[in-house]
Design goal:
By secondary structure, this protein is α/β, with parallel strands linked by helices. It folds into 3 domains: about 180 residues, Rossmann fold (3-Layer(aba) Sandwich); about 200 residues, Rossmann fold; about 180 residues, GMP Synthetase, Chain A, domain 3. Helices cover about 30% and strands about 25% of the residues. Helix 5 packs across helix 11. The chain is globular and about 65 Å long. Bound molecules: xanthosine-5'-monophosphate.
Length: about 600
Amino acid sequence: MQKEIAIIDFGGQYTHLIARRIRNLGIFSEIYQPEDFEFKPNIIGIIFSGGPQTVNAGDAYKIKWSIEDSPVPLLGICYGHQLIAHKLGGKIASGRNKEYGYTEIDCINDSGILADTALRQRVWMSHGDHVVEMPDGYEIVASTDQVPIAAYRSADNKIFGVQFHPEVSHTEFGSKILDNFLNICTDSRDWKVDNFKNELIETVRKQAGDKDLLILLSGGVDSLVAMELCLAAVGSDRVFAIHIDTGFMRYQESANIINHLHELGYNNMELIDAEDKYLSELKDVYDPEEKRLIIGRLFVEIADEAISKFKKDNILLVQGTIYPDTIESGDSAKSAKIKTHHNRVAEIEKLLAEGKIIEPIRDLYKDEVRALGIELGIPPELVNRHPFPGPGLAIRILTSDAKPQIPVDNAEKAKLKELFNNSLLQGEILPVRSVGVMGDGRTYNHPVLFSYRSNSTHNWQELRIAARKAISSLNSVNRALFAISGQNEKYGLKKHSLSKNSCDQIRQVDHLLMQRVKHIKEIWQMPVVQLPLFDKEGRQIYVMRPVTSIDAMTADFYEMDFEFLQELVWEVKKMDFVADLFYDITSKPPATIEWE
Ligand code: XMP
């Protein structure tokens, strides 16, 4: 019988990632809801996922079996780590010593799940609560500066808890830690990743039946890979593609997509120019979720119009939705909604429920989509392009009615000042807000802008630590920025809307920066963001956010050479509508890659 690791889903953003990592390590894994889980003889180990809840809220999940009597080894991650400790009589503190993103742990005992790692190692955190008192008979095996109980184990080496996330790619020895856990569960592995490509093609063929397929090409890698799967499944005569130019595409992007596809020999496609429609509906919209919902609705309306040219009953829509699009939209039973991705609005959900949409790559992460794309024969230069979100520049232009609902709090300003009193860095909380993900929940808060007080040498580590300090100490801050040119001027918030002009301007800045950084292979994606902050001459503030990542579930900011960055800032400031260019120095978590 095939061995299995059961993953109990408490609504963590990374539950699915745990499942994939375990499969990649050679054991089949399956995700269960806590109330549905029952032991089966082939289950050789259990993992409790993270989640947005706090065990102190009194609504800790009911688990039908007793943890101490677990017949198989058990690993708790983040919320799971807290839940196990709580159920066994330990204590959890809420809201103190929060940690988001990169943290270092010191291992007190480096055997068990920490075997063959390092005494001090880089891990990824995302939590507000933490364990403060161990259950009887349990031993602490790792600590951080903030949190003394960062990992524990039972005396018989069968039950473990880790406050950090071993499943994310930014945890230095994450894969080794999971591998060690599997070694504790079993001495042999029997899961082989089959020929995944053929499996997916077969699934599309079955889902399509005798219907034709209409694919909505965004221009990105995901929809291109989904399209290739469709072509392989039903042949080119039955696959039609449309590309909607929303007006929020990057410089010449729509034209490039069409050209690429023609070069690759696809001709069954239509370009729909919907710029005016999008701009008129979004003119006075300032809330990120509202923007996303409108963009998603228009997308469905336009697709519907395109479908009406076909015989409606005989066509299915295909979307290149990938896993992070569904999980961040709150699709998993208990995970919190971070943002509604454009392919997860109500109208799409309805079509999905009616069986009118198929999503061939919805279980894959970006790295897996790319690997599949290469398998399908798509040229690497197309497959390895930076991801670009469906709603495009619309979510990179922060609009404002100049009346922030949450003005910057004076007490928070004072606290920031005090925190950096004796520092080379000074900080200012900006009167705009962006989306973040902290402890598996959504945040919508202010960025803090750092700059050096004098001409001291710049240091990314110093900036990284400052960002972390500000975000964990201030309630109204979820992101940090760096102004390499200093903070010489105050920038005022002004009314700012989505318009042809604002799109053209961000396109220019984005194009220049993308051309200048395209040789840096470590940069996985680099959103350029336009803020509704202006100098006295009416010039505007921009932000660049280069990140490293593998699967978009976690990300770190890229540490650019300072001289090169200074050059970029000078070049961008030559544009007469640019006041300054700031650099985003936040990891994900606590901030998301995009600002909205
Ligand atoms: P965040 O900002 O959530 O983004 O860290 C994770 C990845 O997803 C992309 N993204 C989207 N892609 N539709 C998409 O197709 C969307 O609505 C959307 N929102 C974010 C983002 O660019 C990043 O690569």
